[in-house]
Write a structure and sequence with these properties.
This protein is mainly α and 478 residues long. The protein has helices at 14-19, 32-35, 39-42, 57-62, 89-100, 121-124, 150-161, 170-173, 185-194, 198-209, 218-230, 240-246, 249-261, 265-277, 284-295, 301-312, 321-334, 337-349, 356-368, 372-384, 391-403, 407-419, 426-439, 442-454, 461-476; strands at 3-6, 9-12. It has a two-stranded antiparallel sheet with strand order 1-2. A hairpin with a 2-residue loop joins strand 1 (3-6) and strand 2.
Length: 478
Amino acid sequence: MDCIIIGMIPILSPQNFARNDRVAFMVRPSSTRRSSLPKNLRYPRQAKLPPDLGVNQFLNKTSNDASEPEFPEEEEEEYTEDGDIVWESDEIEAIQSLFQGRIPQKPGSLNRQRPLPLPLPYKVRPSRLPSPKKNAVKIGPMSKQVYKNPNALVGLAREIRSLASDKDVGIVLNKRVHFLRKGSLSMTIRELGHMGLPERALQTFCWAQKQPQLYPDDRILSSTVEVLARNHELKLPFNLDKFTSSASRGVIEAMVRGFIKGGSLHLAWKLVSVAKDNQRKLDPSLYAKLIVEFGKNPDKHMVVMTLLEELGEREDLNLSQQDCTAIMKVCIRLGKFEVVESVYDWFRQSGHDPTVVIYTTLIHSRYSEKRYREALAVVWEMEASNCLFDFPAYRVVIKLFVALNDLARAVRYFSKLKEAGFTPTYDVYRDLIRIYMVSGRLAKCREICKEVEMGGLKLDQETMSHLLQLEREKRFGI
């Protein structure tokens, strides 16, 4: 390999560089004076030269610095005798295409189409989708999901209702038998009961008994029993002990619900008592419904207390917020304020958050018991919990402040009531007039009276007499 050294910089010959694979640099040992030179003088910078147009600069930049440098061989250009460059035919065609605005295509088909991308698995077969059923048969407008579609099941009840009185329900149900499952007709039977057609409901149940894929089923039986009991079409069995011991809990509860809705409270109470004697535990909500219905009758005070005691003995007590509110209201009407407090404490200890209805009922209970300070503490608890007041809450709170003779707070909550968009009722106006009369503010009383008249209401004789007496006292300075 040829290597020419000028000073201390080796210069390689391109021909030898391209011919050999490895290059070894041979440099004469430097003197002590040269070794003492600094690095910047030891390797002086060369002046930047313009890039060579015949060399691909991109390949030179992307090449690894640690690899050995390679220089492409320079192609020797051909010249004519006159010294002109000889152009190839493809080079001439490329230069001509620049002026024509088109680059010549490579030989082959000019109308080539790009192949479509391969389909992705998650687009071809979506995961967790049911495979289509090939043998699905549809009859009429009913779909194959009719057995759990509420609209379709209610539509069955409407079709049965439209039948003539001498036609059997099998005309409609036989067309849908392939789409029905166990429990499907329970909603249809209940809907027939709401339509006042207990006979059709019983016919539907009798038809379902003949279908082995639909019966036995306690849901259909419970719905039929409830409909018949509500419409007074069910005869109570003579031996209740045998019935309660053999029947399922769902059937007994459906019968009790039907008797309650039909107004047969004595039958419902009798059935509950027999079930309790046979150690059959029913849903606590049934006790709450019986308490509410018996609480409307003042003569059934002892029955209500018995139901409350039985309900308090239950260890698996599970009542909803509506059941608790209903029981509290009945106990307020009967004067059992300690039961109200017990129900409220149980509701809090069960992990439920009191709603505005529970708070309002508790305030009304303590107000009725004349425990005004304890009721006021509940109001502050409502405010601290950011509980949104409804109209009954505003009404009972205004009553509370009138009883406390707190005019400022009563007026403030009266303003809040109107700001919330509620229209004050007559009792709210009357309470506000009463507290203004106690404070001796006759002008405010007249203002409220004018607002009452504008609302289309009329004051009672007692309130009018008190207002006239107050005006007489103000006039004569009594």
